[in-house]
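Quick review question:
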């Protein structure tokens, strides 16, 4: 039986008090399995889902190692995105409350360089950042890592998905060989195994299957008349303006109709259903995952096996008869420690399905009418990125770094204007910010990637 009390750990009484004041009464599963090893100084490979309390699992460990009187970077945390880095920074600041003179600096893309350099000059004990920006600071000599004790790779699988492998290695090479490395990942694909072999030494592996907490999902049910379904769906988008949504439908035909209807109303939606061939399906998923399409309209079957990291909203265009299917659908939102949103439409005839959900979850459903939705006159839901497809892929030895290099080098794009890169056998996809698409396409039309001309086109 594992002891779940923080006081069973070799940490200061001040820290246990602090944790208590944060309302952390006992350790989460990942914390109780990882922290004893982390505090012993071991390297760790931890596999755990979002929302399982990973930040404290490494945060308490790295804070324990920090010497506030030494003004150098002693802990470095790599995160895939600015938002995640922000979250981690906030959480660590809370965990560090009992030692007020510990300084934490965030180094993320999309923020001006100057103030970051300034903060580093004032001395930072802990740095949290995204790979691209950290690499920039290292190359410019603003950041020194030779006194580093703890290196954390948070959501390592996502960083690899985003094509950061080489950048991560370049950063890691500048840290002392004798360091503690803590790697966290929700999944454990071959790419992670490979990375682990080269950067961890004699690691302990811990795996925790976190159960999804339905409590973090706001569930709202809209009572509609049969003819109000489409218009209320639009109303949901106007009112909530979710950044990423899956709309669930029953049939392929419904998927096609609903996505067409949304596109006619300036919401860039793509349908995913069993009739798509592999290439079409890949394209849809690539565009959804790289933020160049914010709405997916799917059947349950097509959504199976969809590995979507964090979804802001799930909409049930029609409620399923089986409450288990409902629970499964809405479990795709509210993952990244964020609050999820599950919106459902139901007619009088379908009220019995709402009752079934109430019994199944042992809750009273929050019901509303479409009239409560704030409507907008000219609404336009445009995703932040556009996908460019290139006619060269893995078979042409194309790697994410080649594309990133060409676009940030010769083409002159900023790293922050380039999103996810996906490489398939015969083609590649790169997400580019709207404002930089012209520049990227112009370059690709004449310049070269990996010494060869490629054909590139925008997918819309
Ligand atoms: P993850 O990185 O695994 O997605 P986080 O570290 O962001 O998860 O933690 C999720 C939430 O749980 C945060 O709001 C955090 O403050 C809270 N939390 C973490 N550990 C505990 C604990 N032992 N007791 C209560 N809440 C906790
Ligand atoms: Mg996290």
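Suggested answer, residue by residue:
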């Amino acid at each position: 039986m594992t002891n779940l009390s923080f006081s069973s750990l070799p940490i200061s009484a001040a820290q246990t008090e602090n944790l208590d004041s944060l309302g952390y009464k006992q350790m989460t599963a990942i914390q109780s399995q990882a922290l004893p090893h982390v505090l012993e100084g071991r390297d760790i490979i931890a596999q755990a889902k979002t929302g399982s309390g990973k930040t404290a699992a490494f945060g308490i460990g790295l804070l324990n190692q920090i010497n506030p009187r030494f003004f150098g970077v002693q802990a470095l945390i790599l995160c895939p995105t600015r938002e995640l880095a922000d979250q981690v920074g906030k959480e660590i600041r809370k965990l560090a409350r009992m030692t007020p003179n510990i300084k934490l600096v965030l180094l993320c893309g999309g923020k001006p360089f100057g103030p970051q350099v300034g903060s580093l000059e004032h001395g930072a004990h802990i740095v949290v950042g995204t790979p691209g920006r950290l690499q920039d600071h290292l190359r410019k000599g603003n950041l020194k890592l030779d006194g580093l004790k703890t290196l954390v790779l948070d959501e390592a699988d996502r960083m690899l998905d985003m094509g950061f492998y080489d950048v991560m290695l370049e950063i890691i090479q500048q840290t002392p060989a004798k360091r503690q490395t803590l790697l966290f990942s929700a999944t454990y694909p071959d790419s992670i195994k490979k990375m682990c072999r080269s950067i961890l030494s004699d690691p302990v592996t811990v795996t925790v299957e976190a159960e999804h907490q339905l409590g973090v999902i706001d569930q709202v049910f809209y009572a509609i008349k049969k003819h109000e379904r489409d218009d209320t769906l639009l109303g949901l988008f106007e009112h909530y303006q979710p950044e990423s949504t899956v709309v669930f439908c029953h049939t392929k035909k419904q998927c096609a109709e609903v996505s067409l209807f949304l596109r006619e109303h300036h919401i860039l939606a793509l349908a995913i259903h069993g009739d798509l061939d592999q290439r079409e399906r890949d394209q849809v998923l690539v565009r959804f995952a790289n933020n160049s399409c914010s709405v997916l309209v799917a059947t349950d079957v097509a959504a199976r096996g969809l590995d979507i990291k964090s979804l802001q909203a799930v909409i049930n265009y029609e409620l399923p008869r089986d409450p288990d299917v409902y629970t499964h659908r809405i479990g795709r939102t509210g993952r990244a420690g964020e609050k999820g949103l599950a919106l459902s439409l139901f007619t009088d005839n379908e009220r019995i399905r709402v009752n079934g959900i109430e019994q199944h979850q042992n809750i009273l459903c929050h019901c509303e009418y479409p009239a409560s939705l704030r409507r907008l006159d000219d609404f336009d839901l445009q995703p932040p990125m556009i996908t460019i497809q290139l006619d060269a892929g893995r078979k042409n030895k194309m790697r994410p770094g080649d594309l990133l290099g060409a676009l940030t080098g010769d083409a002159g794009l900023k790293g922050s204007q380039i999103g996810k890169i996906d490489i398939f056998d015969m083609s590649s996809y790169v997400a580019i910010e709207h404002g930089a698409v012209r520049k990227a396409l112009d370059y690709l039309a004449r310049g070269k990637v990996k010494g060869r001309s490629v054909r590139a086109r925008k997918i819309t």
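Why it works: The chain has three domains: 6-207, 214-372, 385-459. Residues 23-24, 27-28, 31, 48, 50-56, 87, 91, 337 surround adenosine-5'-diphosphate (ligand 1) (CB under 6 Å).
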